[in-house]
Amino acid sequence: MASGPLRGVRIYGLGLMAALVLAIAPSQAQAASPVLEFVTPPHNEFLAEGGAVTAAMAGFEPEVHCAESEGEGEITGPRSTVSIWYFTGCEAQGGSETGHLCQSEEAEPGEIFAGPMEADLVFIDQASHSVGMLLNPGGGEYMDFECGGETVEAFGSFLSPVGPINTMTSSFTASLSRLGATQIPSEYENASGEKLKAIPTGKRGIHPAATTGVELSFNVFTKAPLEIRALTAAEVEAKQHQEEEAAAAAKKHQEEEAATKKRQEEEAAAKKRLEEEANAKKPPTRAQQLAKALKHCRTLHPKDKRTRCESRAKKKFGRHKAAKKQR
After folding, report:
1. pLDDT, tens digit, for every residue of 97-108?
2. Whole-model pTM?
3. Where are the strands (E) in the chain, listed by range?
4. pLDDT score recorded for residue 18
Protein backbone atom coordinates (compact mmCIF):
# COMPACT_ATOMS: atom_id res chain seq x y z
CA MET A 1 0.00 0.00 0.00
CA ALA A 2 1.17 3.52 -0.71
CA SER A 3 2.47 5.68 2.15
CA GLY A 4 1.54 9.18 3.28
CA PRO A 5 -1.87 10.60 4.14
CA LEU A 6 -3.08 9.90 0.62
CA ARG A 7 -0.83 6.90 0.02
CA GLY A 8 0.63 8.42 -3.11
CA VAL A 9 -2.72 8.57 -4.86
CA ARG A 10 -4.06 11.88 -6.06
CA ILE A 11 -7.29 12.48 -4.19
CA TYR A 12 -9.74 15.05 -5.42
CA GLY A 13 -12.32 15.10 -2.62
CA LEU A 14 -13.78 13.87 0.59
CA GLY A 15 -15.51 10.53 0.23
CA LEU A 16 -17.43 10.48 3.48
CA MET A 17 -18.57 14.06 3.80
CA ALA A 18 -19.23 16.92 1.41
CA ALA A 19 -21.12 20.15 1.09
CA LEU A 20 -24.39 20.62 -0.70
CA VAL A 21 -25.48 24.24 -0.30
CA LEU A 22 -29.07 24.88 -1.27
CA ALA A 23 -29.54 28.67 -1.40
CA ILE A 24 -32.19 30.19 0.83
CA ALA A 25 -34.40 32.23 -1.50
CA PRO A 26 -36.65 35.02 -0.17
CA SER A 27 -40.16 33.84 0.74
CA GLN A 28 -42.20 34.59 -2.34
CA ALA A 29 -44.26 32.23 -4.47
CA GLN A 30 -42.11 29.15 -3.85
CA ALA A 31 -41.52 27.30 -0.61
CA ALA A 32 -38.27 27.56 1.33
CA SER A 33 -35.50 25.12 0.44
CA PRO A 34 -33.47 23.12 2.96
CA VAL A 35 -29.88 24.06 3.71
CA LEU A 36 -27.22 21.38 3.81
CA GLU A 37 -23.66 22.65 3.85
CA PHE A 38 -20.24 21.51 4.82
CA VAL A 39 -18.62 24.40 6.75
CA THR A 40 -14.90 23.79 6.38
CA PRO A 41 -11.63 25.28 5.11
CA PRO A 42 -10.90 24.32 1.49
CA HIS A 43 -9.06 21.06 0.79
CA ASN A 44 -9.68 19.73 4.29
CA GLU A 45 -8.20 16.24 4.35
CA PHE A 46 -9.56 13.30 6.34
CA LEU A 47 -8.67 9.79 7.42
CA ALA A 48 -11.25 7.09 8.17
CA GLU A 49 -10.76 4.14 10.47
CA GLY A 50 -13.15 1.20 10.17
CA GLY A 51 -13.41 -2.33 11.42
CA ALA A 52 -14.61 -5.51 9.80
CA VAL A 53 -16.64 -5.41 6.58
CA THR A 54 -19.20 -7.90 5.34
CA ALA A 55 -20.78 -7.80 1.86
CA ALA A 56 -23.55 -10.04 0.58
CA MET A 57 -25.03 -10.45 -2.92
CA ALA A 58 -28.57 -11.70 -3.53
CA GLY A 59 -28.69 -15.24 -4.89
CA PHE A 60 -25.21 -16.23 -3.66
CA GLU A 61 -24.47 -18.10 -0.44
CA PRO A 62 -20.85 -16.93 0.05
CA GLU A 63 -20.26 -13.50 1.55
CA VAL A 64 -17.11 -11.40 1.34
CA HIS A 65 -15.63 -10.64 4.75
CA CYS A 66 -12.69 -8.26 5.36
CA ALA A 67 -10.99 -8.01 8.75
CA GLU A 68 -9.98 -4.33 8.53
CA SER A 69 -10.91 -1.20 6.56
CA GLU A 70 -9.70 2.37 6.19
CA GLY A 71 -10.14 5.33 3.86
CA GLU A 72 -8.89 8.83 3.07
CA GLY A 73 -9.76 11.92 1.06
CA GLU A 74 -10.18 15.69 1.02
CA ILE A 75 -12.87 18.28 0.29
CA THR A 76 -12.82 19.74 -3.22
CA GLY A 77 -16.12 21.53 -3.70
CA PRO A 78 -19.60 22.23 -2.39
CA ARG A 79 -21.23 19.15 -3.92
CA SER A 80 -18.70 16.57 -5.07
CA THR A 81 -15.98 14.58 -3.33
CA VAL A 82 -13.77 11.56 -3.94
CA SER A 83 -12.37 8.95 -1.56
CA ILE A 84 -10.22 5.85 -1.71
CA TRP A 85 -10.79 2.77 0.47
CA TYR A 86 -8.50 -0.07 1.54
CA PHE A 87 -9.72 -3.44 2.82
CA THR A 88 -7.42 -6.14 4.19
CA GLY A 89 -7.89 -9.72 5.33
CA CYS A 90 -10.61 -10.26 2.71
CA GLU A 91 -11.93 -13.74 2.01
CA ALA A 92 -15.10 -15.58 1.01
CA GLN A 93 -17.16 -17.09 3.79
CA GLY A 94 -19.93 -19.61 3.24
CA GLY A 95 -20.29 -22.88 1.40
CA SER A 96 -17.46 -24.40 -0.56
CA GLU A 97 -15.80 -21.00 -1.12
CA THR A 98 -15.03 -20.44 2.58
CA GLY A 99 -11.43 -19.35 3.01
CA HIS A 100 -10.85 -18.29 -0.61
CA LEU A 101 -8.89 -15.01 -0.56
CA CYS A 102 -10.22 -11.97 -2.43
CA GLN A 103 -8.04 -9.27 -3.99
CA SER A 104 -8.02 -6.33 -6.38
CA GLU A 105 -5.84 -6.33 -9.47
CA GLU A 106 -2.16 -5.75 -8.62
CA ALA A 107 -2.95 -6.03 -4.89
CA GLU A 108 -1.67 -8.53 -2.38
CA PRO A 109 -3.87 -11.56 -1.61
CA GLY A 110 -6.64 -10.52 0.78
CA GLU A 111 -6.43 -6.80 -0.20
CA ILE A 112 -9.24 -4.93 -1.99
CA PHE A 113 -9.10 -1.28 -3.09
CA ALA A 114 -12.11 0.89 -3.96
CA GLY A 115 -12.20 4.29 -5.62
CA PRO A 116 -11.61 7.04 -6.34
CA MET A 117 -15.26 7.33 -5.35
CA GLU A 118 -17.37 10.48 -5.42
CA ALA A 119 -19.93 11.32 -2.72
CA ASP A 120 -22.55 13.99 -2.00
CA LEU A 121 -24.05 15.08 1.29
CA VAL A 122 -27.84 14.53 1.29
CA PHE A 123 -30.86 14.48 3.55
CA ILE A 124 -31.90 10.87 4.07
CA ASP A 125 -35.01 12.12 5.87
CA GLN A 126 -35.65 15.77 6.78
CA ALA A 127 -38.41 14.96 9.26
CA SER A 128 -35.99 13.01 11.46
CA HIS A 129 -32.94 15.20 10.69
CA SER A 130 -31.18 12.18 9.19
CA VAL A 131 -28.18 13.15 7.04
CA GLY A 132 -25.88 10.91 5.04
CA MET A 133 -23.40 10.59 2.24
CA LEU A 134 -24.63 9.44 -1.16
CA LEU A 135 -21.60 7.47 -2.30
CA ASN A 136 -20.96 6.94 -6.00
CA PRO A 137 -23.89 9.20 -7.03
CA GLY A 138 -23.22 8.54 -10.73
CA GLY A 139 -24.21 4.92 -10.25
CA GLY A 140 -21.42 3.32 -12.32
CA GLU A 141 -18.82 0.77 -11.27
CA TYR A 142 -16.90 1.77 -8.17
CA MET A 143 -15.03 -1.45 -7.30
CA ASP A 144 -13.95 -4.76 -8.83
CA PHE A 145 -11.92 -7.66 -7.47
CA GLU A 146 -11.43 -11.40 -7.81
CA CYS A 147 -12.63 -13.89 -5.25
CA GLY A 148 -12.08 -17.63 -5.58
CA GLY A 149 -11.17 -17.29 -9.24
CA GLU A 150 -14.33 -15.36 -10.11
CA THR A 151 -14.55 -11.63 -10.93
CA VAL A 152 -16.81 -9.49 -8.74
CA GLU A 153 -17.96 -6.00 -9.82
CA ALA A 154 -19.85 -3.43 -7.72
CA PHE A 155 -22.21 -0.80 -9.20
CA GLY A 156 -24.71 1.86 -8.21
CA SER A 157 -25.05 4.49 -5.52
CA PHE A 158 -25.53 3.75 -1.81
CA LEU A 159 -26.09 5.64 1.43
CA SER A 160 -24.03 6.05 4.58
CA PRO A 161 -25.68 7.98 7.49
CA VAL A 162 -23.25 10.41 9.19
CA GLY A 163 -23.17 12.53 12.33
CA PRO A 164 -23.09 14.67 14.32
CA ILE A 165 -24.75 17.55 12.48
CA ASN A 166 -24.80 21.26 13.37
CA THR A 167 -21.71 20.79 15.55
CA MET A 168 -18.15 21.97 14.94
CA THR A 169 -15.89 18.94 15.39
CA SER A 170 -12.97 16.98 13.92
CA SER A 171 -14.50 13.56 14.54
CA PHE A 172 -17.51 12.01 12.80
CA THR A 173 -19.16 8.61 12.70
CA ALA A 174 -20.56 6.91 9.61
CA SER A 175 -21.98 3.50 8.86
CA LEU A 176 -23.19 1.16 6.15
CA SER A 177 -26.02 -1.19 7.09
CA ARG A 178 -27.75 -4.08 5.37
CA LEU A 179 -30.65 -6.44 5.73
CA GLY A 180 -29.36 -9.58 4.08
CA ALA A 181 -28.32 -8.56 0.57
CA THR A 182 -30.28 -5.29 0.69
CA GLN A 183 -28.59 -1.99 1.60
CA ILE A 184 -30.47 0.17 4.16
CA PRO A 185 -31.43 2.92 3.98
CA SER A 186 -32.14 2.83 0.25
CA GLU A 187 -33.86 6.22 -0.19
CA TYR A 188 -32.88 9.87 0.23
CA GLU A 189 -34.48 13.27 -0.44
CA ASN A 190 -33.65 15.90 -3.02
CA ALA A 191 -34.00 19.65 -2.38
CA SER A 192 -37.78 19.57 -2.87
CA GLY A 193 -38.25 16.59 -0.55
CA GLU A 194 -38.82 14.08 -3.35
CA LYS A 195 -37.72 10.54 -2.47
CA LEU A 196 -34.98 9.05 -4.68
CA LYS A 197 -33.58 5.52 -4.74
CA ALA A 198 -30.00 4.48 -3.95
CA ILE A 199 -29.73 0.71 -4.49
CA PRO A 200 -26.27 -0.82 -5.02
CA THR A 201 -25.87 -3.96 -7.14
CA GLY A 202 -23.13 -6.42 -7.85
CA LYS A 203 -22.18 -8.92 -10.54
CA ARG A 204 -20.25 -12.18 -10.22
CA GLY A 205 -18.67 -13.60 -13.34
CA ILE A 206 -21.26 -14.20 -16.06
CA HIS A 207 -24.21 -14.07 -13.65
CA PRO A 208 -26.72 -11.20 -13.95
CA ALA A 209 -26.51 -8.22 -11.60
CA ALA A 210 -28.13 -8.60 -8.15
CA THR A 211 -28.70 -6.35 -5.16
CA THR A 212 -25.92 -6.12 -2.58
CA GLY A 213 -25.70 -5.17 1.05
CA VAL A 214 -22.58 -3.97 2.88
CA GLU A 215 -22.13 -3.65 6.64
CA LEU A 216 -19.41 -1.37 8.03
CA SER A 217 -18.97 1.21 10.80
CA PHE A 218 -16.13 3.73 10.85
CA ASN A 219 -14.85 6.97 12.37
CA VAL A 220 -13.76 9.95 10.30
CA PHE A 221 -11.03 12.32 11.50
CA THR A 222 -10.57 15.61 9.64
CA LYS A 223 -7.42 17.69 9.49
CA ALA A 224 -9.32 20.86 10.44
CA PRO A 225 -12.57 21.13 12.43
CA LEU A 226 -15.72 21.35 10.35
CA GLU A 227 -19.50 21.41 10.68
CA ILE A 228 -22.23 19.64 8.77
CA ARG A 229 -24.88 22.35 8.87
CA ALA A 230 -28.32 20.88 8.22
CA LEU A 231 -31.55 22.89 8.28
CA THR A 232 -34.83 21.46 7.03
CA ALA A 233 -37.17 23.44 4.79
CA ALA A 234 -39.45 24.01 7.79
CA GLU A 235 -36.54 25.32 9.88
CA VAL A 236 -35.41 27.62 7.06
CA GLU A 237 -38.93 29.00 6.73
CA ALA A 238 -39.21 29.50 10.50
CA LYS A 239 -35.86 31.29 10.52
CA GLN A 240 -36.99 33.55 7.68
CA HIS A 241 -40.16 34.43 9.61
CA GLN A 242 -38.11 35.19 12.73
CA GLU A 243 -35.78 37.46 10.76
CA GLU A 244 -38.76 39.21 9.11
CA GLU A 245 -40.46 39.70 12.49
CA ALA A 246 -37.22 41.00 14.03
CA ALA A 247 -36.75 43.43 11.12
CA ALA A 248 -40.37 44.63 11.42
CA ALA A 249 -39.98 45.10 15.19
CA ALA A 250 -36.73 47.05 14.70
CA LYS A 251 -38.38 49.25 12.06
CA LYS A 252 -41.36 49.90 14.33
CA HIS A 253 -39.04 50.79 17.21
CA GLN A 254 -37.11 53.24 15.00
CA GLU A 255 -40.36 54.82 13.81
CA GLU A 256 -41.61 55.17 17.38
CA GLU A 257 -38.31 56.75 18.47
CA ALA A 258 -38.43 59.18 15.53
CA ALA A 259 -42.07 60.08 16.33
CA THR A 260 -41.22 60.64 20.02
CA LYS A 261 -38.27 62.84 19.12
CA LYS A 262 -40.36 64.87 16.69
CA ARG A 263 -43.12 65.34 19.28
CA GLN A 264 -40.59 66.46 21.90
CA GLU A 265 -39.06 68.95 19.45
CA GLU A 266 -42.50 70.33 18.55
CA GLU A 267 -43.44 70.67 22.24
CA ALA A 268 -40.15 72.47 22.98
CA ALA A 269 -40.69 74.85 20.05
CA ALA A 270 -44.26 75.59 21.16
CA LYS A 271 -43.09 76.27 24.72
CA LYS A 272 -40.42 78.65 23.44
CA ARG A 273 -42.98 80.54 21.32
CA LEU A 274 -45.27 80.93 24.32
CA GLU A 275 -42.42 82.26 26.44
CA GLU A 276 -41.43 84.71 23.73
CA GLU A 277 -45.02 85.89 23.34
CA ALA A 278 -45.37 86.29 27.10
CA ASN A 279 -42.12 88.27 27.29
CA ALA A 280 -43.23 90.49 24.42
CA LYS A 281 -46.39 91.52 26.38
CA LYS A 282 -44.44 92.53 29.53
CA PRO A 283 -43.70 96.30 29.95
CA PRO A 284 -40.03 97.15 29.50
CA THR A 285 -37.92 97.37 32.64
CA ARG A 286 -36.23 100.61 33.71
CA ALA A 287 -32.91 99.15 32.63
CA GLN A 288 -34.34 98.40 29.17
CA GLN A 289 -35.79 101.90 28.95
CA LEU A 290 -32.45 103.40 30.00
CA ALA A 291 -30.56 101.40 27.47
CA LYS A 292 -32.96 102.46 24.72
CA ALA A 293 -32.70 106.12 25.73
CA LEU A 294 -28.90 106.06 25.88
CA LYS A 295 -28.79 104.41 22.47
CA HIS A 296 -30.82 107.34 21.12
CA CYS A 297 -28.59 109.90 22.84
CA ARG A 298 -25.47 108.53 21.20
CA THR A 299 -26.88 109.50 17.81
CA LEU A 300 -27.10 113.22 18.73
CA HIS A 301 -24.62 115.99 17.81
CA PRO A 302 -22.88 118.12 18.96
CA LYS A 303 -21.37 116.56 22.03
CA ASP A 304 -22.97 118.90 24.54
CA LYS A 305 -26.39 118.02 23.18
CA ARG A 306 -25.57 114.33 23.50
CA THR A 307 -24.30 114.85 27.05
CA ARG A 308 -27.50 116.65 28.16
CA CYS A 309 -29.58 113.85 26.62
CA GLU A 310 -27.66 111.17 28.52
CA SER A 311 -27.96 113.11 31.77
CA ARG A 312 -31.76 113.44 31.42
CA ALA A 313 -32.06 109.69 30.58
CA LYS A 314 -30.09 108.68 33.65
CA LYS A 315 -32.16 110.94 35.87
CA LYS A 316 -35.38 109.56 34.46
CA PHE A 317 -34.55 105.84 34.30
CA GLY A 318 -31.42 105.48 36.44
CA ARG A 319 -31.09 103.52 39.67
CA HIS A 320 -31.16 106.64 41.88
CA LYS A 321 -34.61 107.38 40.48
CA ALA A 322 -35.84 103.93 41.39
CA ALA A 323 -34.28 104.20 44.85
CA LYS A 324 -35.88 107.58 45.37
CA LYS A 325 -39.31 106.14 44.59
CA GLN A 326 -38.76 103.36 47.07
CA ARG A 327 -38.03 105.88 49.84
Report:
1. 889 999 999 999
2. 0.68
3. 35-39, 45-50, 53-57, 63-66, 68-75, 81-88, 91-93, 102-103, 112-125, 130-135, 141-147, 150-155, 158-163, 169-179, 182-184, 187-189, 195-197, 201-204, 210-231
4. 34
